[in-house]
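call fold(seq) -> tokens
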Amino acid sequence: MESTADPARAGGRAANILTIQAGKRAFLKQNVALLAFWPILCFIVGALLWLTIQSQLQTDRNALCKDALNDAAALSRAYARDLTRSIEQVDQASLLIQYRWQQSHRAMPLEQLLQDGLFTGSRFAVVTIIDRNGVPLSGTSASASPAALTGLDHFQFHRNETSHRLHIGEPPAGRVFGKAVVQFSRRLEMPDGSFDGVVLIAVQPEYFASFYDAASLGRTGLLAFAGSDGELRMARIGAG
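ret:
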């Protein structure tokens, strides 16, 4: 009895296995589209999520760039106002010296104005009157040689031009005054209108950046101003 029952059971198991395998093949054949749908759906969802994240990151970057540009524009406008006021103060000082010198018939001692405190403060590095030959007549640059002064940008400009406006010269990089300065000057004239020298007020470039500290500029910020000739007068880099 045992020898005949074992083959029967083995045959039954084999039949069951074949039936199960056939059922699996039939299920896969009937539902292949459904089985492929889920991986495709996961891929599409992942791609949409990635695109959404990238779009949001780009939006955030654009917003940060816009805010940075707005901040830079606001800082530039504020600096332009402060710079204008500073230049106007120097301009008024040069007009006063020009007027007093010409009214005194070239006899006003500029040292008296300095002693009266008119030009106190670190911003005025040099205040002087230079005659038509480049000789300092009065002020704080008596040690400068006439040859050096006549070669400066401001002296050449006023000797060759009859303009009465304030002239902002190029920084001479310390070759005359021992330090880098921004030159503000006005033409002096004889009663007949001929060239008679210049009023020179030299200001250290750092003064024009003293309104803003490194924190205001940021790590890589740049604050600078240049003349209409394209020459840089002052530049300051941020904390970086």
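The radius of gyration is 41 Å.
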